[in-house]
Structure prediction request, 248 residues.
Amino acid sequence: MKLEVRAQRAGQSLARWLAPLTFTDWSAARVTAELTRAVVAWGVAHGWRVRREVPSLAELPGAHPDRSGYLDVVCERLDGPPIAIEIDQSEKPWSARKLLVEADSGVVPVWVRWGEPPSGTVPEPVALVVFVTTCRAVGPTRRRLYSRTVDQHPQPSAPPAPATEQPPQHAPTRPRCRATTKKGEPCPIDARPSGLCHVHDPAVQCGRLTRKGSACTVPTGGGPCKYHQDQSQSEPAPPLPPWLPDVS
Prediction:
């Protein structure tokens, strides 16, 4: 799957997660802290390992040459590349640069922007999550307070499925080997017609010895495996002296 598609899917999912969040007259620091908490909760709800203030996965240097740049939130996944998320109130070129560098190293980049609707464009493949708030100045110091209601910003809905789309069909489960591993767990390898995998079925193993002296378990139809066949072809036996008969 392309990185742009992964980023857009992550951004749409995160936008739906953040949409129900509402508040009245919060400071900028409190809004950023609550958005960070909600992003962490989103990652945890997906079963990922979530960390905050993580050094750049792409080893991007920070403001000081001897220090790495930091990412606001990183979600590490077993079924895909990690997701790097930056959370900003304003358009920070440094955040865009960090996410682009992470994307070059294969990390999924997502940028959460809150406050006024952004006016500029976000470079691909960075996914933009817009979290619009209203602002008012109070008191003699004109302190800025931020609010958000669901009525003003309804929750985004998931993209509708095409009318011709068929319901997903589950692929038939493939039979697994009936043997157990050394740890006593079911063997995860696909079974052969004999009911065993190539590791547990000696009839389909090479039978030769590896360099470490253990039996080669490469699957074959009988006889030596391709590796040993190629090896025997690449290293032919030396010719016999003319005074010795060839008895092979």
